[in-house]
Amino acid sequence: MNRRRFLQQLASWLVSLGGVGAIAGRQSATASVPEHPETKRFGMAIDVDKCIGCARCMEACKTENAVPPEPFFFRTWVERYVIKEDGEAVVSSLGAPTGQHMEVAEEKDRLRSFFVPKLCNQCEHPPCVQVCPVRATFKTPEGVVLVDSTRCIGCRYCIQACPYGARYLHPETKTADKCTFCYQRVTKELLPACVEVCPTQARIFGDTSTPASPLERVRRMNKIHVLKAHLNTDPKVIYANLDGEVR
Amino acid sequence: MMAETVERLSEVAKQVTGYVYPNDVEVQWSILIVLYPYLTGLVAGAFILASLVKVFNVKAVEPTYRLALLTALAFLLVAPIPLQAHLGHPERAFWIFLAPNPTSAMAMFGFVYAWYLMVVLLLEIWFVYRKDMVLYARQTRAPLRWVYKVLSLFSRDVSEPALQFDKKMVKGITIIGIPSAFLLHGYVGFIFGSVKANPWWSSVLMPIVFLFSAIVSGIALVLLLYMIITPTRGEKIDMPCLDTMASYLFYAVIVDFSLECLDFVHRLYESEESIKILSALVFNKLIVSLLVMQVLLGMIVPFLIMVIIKLWNIDEELRKLLYFVSAILIQVGIFSTRWNVVIGGQMFSKSFRGLTAYKMELGGIEGLFVAVAFLVLPFVVLWVLTKLLPPWGKPEEATAPAAS
């Protein structure tokens, strides 16, 4: 190898090493300083033991978000579980129509009963966002999954992909609709309507990135579970005192 | 619109059994979405039959080659219309092409479809018919003459080297076309198979089952068309051709049936959380469409008929009748397969605790009449195509030379 060639190769090595270093440096810089330090990460905890099944959250949600009043369209709903002596669960949803073959557990058969509020789980890995063909469903910097109703084509693939039954096709706009954590409120430092009206504080809303938030307190003080954990959607709606029968 | 939806859902709610999530009462994908995989399956199957001639050199089915290609085109042209009609906002569908979401299986539809239509089918048909179109352009009078000139893209060369080049191109395109046809229908299977929220759909076998059922339905359709069209044109049915087609149909049915059995056994053996609700689904909602129409009439009966034909020496006329009956049964079976996947997959709630119902309307855009119209439309398109580009006979024999 002559001197000229050696110097040429040395120069190219230095340039490439410099490039790698610059990229590595950039990465460590982004790791230590968040890009938007002010951005919150919203989440909700539901303390199942505190829910009394008053359904005020359902009512407040429909009013706040102009959800059709008919009992086929819900951004949030409350399920009532009755576990019978033989272990079988009888489930119904407050305010939703019951089918003709709906089983009702007799008083004497009841072992335990409880209410479970349900809503969009605001997944960290949302299947709805993954499947939307036109990116009408997206995740905000705060981690809230929203639907752009001016972009949605109404194909309903997201409704099929949601494991929690949290979405419906709005009968008037003909676009997909779901819980937004009351994004219009929470971005103005207000609480979601359902949280605001809950008389027993069964719903706790907050910022998961602030250790002092009430939400984080729930996480510290309780055994926590999420719905359908095996699907790896990583929900940001977490449940305290959840029964194993709840799906 | 709102009142109609609510009225329909109130009716459906009465038939709900067990507990369904309140938003799950409504079946979102209707009969129009059943049509889509059915129609694209016919496209893929017909194309694969055609490719037997060019790539695998199965000369016996040559008489159906051009008919199979035109059938594939006719059905492919109609396939996206029911999808479009089903959208809540059809006027926004162009966003799928302009701003597709790369992680969405559905967004890839535009590209898979465009590739298959433009690069595979239209190109192959153009090269197959180029010589004929040039000759038709010479032999017919205006305005038809101009139609052929435009269709042939003003090419005029029918010399031997040019025709050899056409042949080479056809072979090349068919070789690309086979994986493309697999992609077209395999991806439709993936749209369903990749929905992890739905245990009835979520299966790695779904694209493969879709593919083989597509091959079954496509071959059966071309066989039916060939058996109907040939006698009406006063010609004799080519029995070796029919026998070969039926043989391939038989093999495809065996593979398809084995795959579906594997899927069934696998689910039953694993007996996951969803097994209870899926059993309830099959035995309460899908007895007729799955057990009777799909499995018994659509699979077992045609399979037995073909076994009988293979084992015993049955005379020509009876054989024709048996092939015809089998092919019709297979069509009914494959349509039921699509129905059971699409509608069946939505009849249980993701609560895994209850079943809802599907109430098909008669009128309206998502109704039965529109669905039937979409099923008839490909045959109308095929009729126009066969008038324009007859898959039988040569132009020299077909048309008298024009005075000029």
Strand-helix topology:
The complex is a heterodimer of chains A (247) and B (404).
Chain A: H1 3-32, E1 42-47, H2 56-65, E2 76-84, E3 89-93, E4 110-119, H3 127-131, E5 137-139, E6 145-147, H4 157-161, E7 168-169, E8 176-177, H5 183-186, H6 193-197, E9 203-207, H7 214-221, E10 224-225, E11 237-240
Chain B: H1 2-14, E1 17-19, H2 31-54, H3 65-78, H4 80-86, H5 95-98, H6 109-139, H7 144-151, H8 160-193, H9 206-232, H10 239-270, H11 275-284, H12 287-311, H13 316-342, E2 353-355, H14 368-388, H15 395-398
Antiparallel strand pairs in B: 1-2
Helix pairs in contact in B: 2-3, 2-4, 2-8, 2-9, 2-13, 2-14, 3-6, 3-9, 3-14, 6-7, 6-8, 8-9, 9-10, 9-13, 10-12, 12-13
Oligomer: heterodimer
How does the helix and strand content of chain B classify structurally?
mainly alpha
**Structural class assignment of chain A:** alpha+beta
Uncertain residue ranges of chain A: 24-35
Number of helical elements of chain B: 15
Secondary-structure element series of chain A: HEHEEEHEEHEEHHEHEE
Please name the two chains that share the biggest interface, counting residues whose Cβ lies under 8 Å from a Cβ on the partner chain.
A-B, 55 and 51 residues
Average of the residue pLDDT scores of chain A: 88
Strand order of the largest sheet of chain A: 9-1-11-10
Question: How would a textbook summarize the main sheet of chain A?
Answer: 4 strands, mixed
Shape of chain B: globular
Residue-averaged pLDDT of chain B, rounded? 92
Write down how many β-strands of chain A occur, each being a DSSP E stretch of 2 or more residues: 11
Percent helix of chain B, as a range, is 55-70%
Rg of chain B over CA atoms, rounded to whole Å, is: 23 Å
Radius of gyration of chain A: 24 Å
Morphology of chain A: elongated
- Secondary-structure element string of chain B: HEHHHHHHHHHHHHEHH
